[in-house]
Design brief:
globular, AhpD-like, oxidoreductase, peroxidase activity, mainly alpha
Length: about 200
């Protein structure tokens, strides 16, 4: 049972309107947002930040942003966010071979060197203590410009917030996210954990 029970999707009209964004990304409004709306300024600010971070401004595709989110969530252990990120990656056009082999992104041929650099950045930036070093920086700059690196770190930071929120809250995971988690992550032991 979650620390705080989510409110109804129609609890706050402004949040509800902004949350239409999630019908595209996930197919439902996440329980995390429904919990945040107990303080509507938080839910509204979060949704607007999420939309800004996930906007396409360059070569960092929507699918890659969601895979960056998955790596970050995997590093922190948030099963709720792992399932949401892999579901959104699927919905935003990640290649089937990448979805099936996300755990092996470092060695699997479905991932380019540019994608590996981005995903390694996500892993290093999500660790405590932070592991971003000159080697990560060099690899990033071989493939990405400064604006694209800012976009990537925006995703990593957004999911740092979500990972803390959802794991601390024990947010109940939605059926659609469970299905995606089981399909793409289950073979490596993914389960709902405390997010029941």
């Amino acid at each position: 049972m979650p620390l705080v029970i989510p409110l109804s999707p129609d609890h706050d009209a402004e949040t509800q309107k902004l949350a239409d964004f999630y019908n595209e990304t996930l197919g439902f409004c996440p329980n995390s947002v429904l919990t945040m709306q107990r303080r509507p300024d938080i839910s509204k600010a979060f949704i607007n930040l999420n939309k800004a971070v996930m906007a396409n401004e360059g070569r960092v595709t929507s699918a890659l942003k969601r895979m960056i989110a998955w790596v970050s969530s995997n590093a922190t252990g948030c099963r709720y966010c792992q399932a949401h990120a892999i579901r959104a990656a699927e919905r935003y056009g990640a290649e089937q071979e990448q979805l099936d082999n996300i755990w092996e992104y470092r060695t699997h041929p479905a991932f380019s060197e540019a994608e590996r650099a981005a995903l390694d950045f996500s892993l290093a930036a999500s660790q405590v203590p932070n592991a971003v070093d000159d080697s990560i920086k060099t690899r990033l700059y071989e493939h990405w410009n400064e604006g694209e690196i800012v976009e990537m770190l925006g995703v990593i930071s957004l999911f740092g917030y979500l990972n803390r929120w959802n794991d601390s809250m024990g947010t109940s995971i939605e059926n659609g996210a469970v299905e995606s988690g089981e399909q793409y992550l289950g073979k490596h032991g993914w389960n709902k954990g405390k997010h029941i």
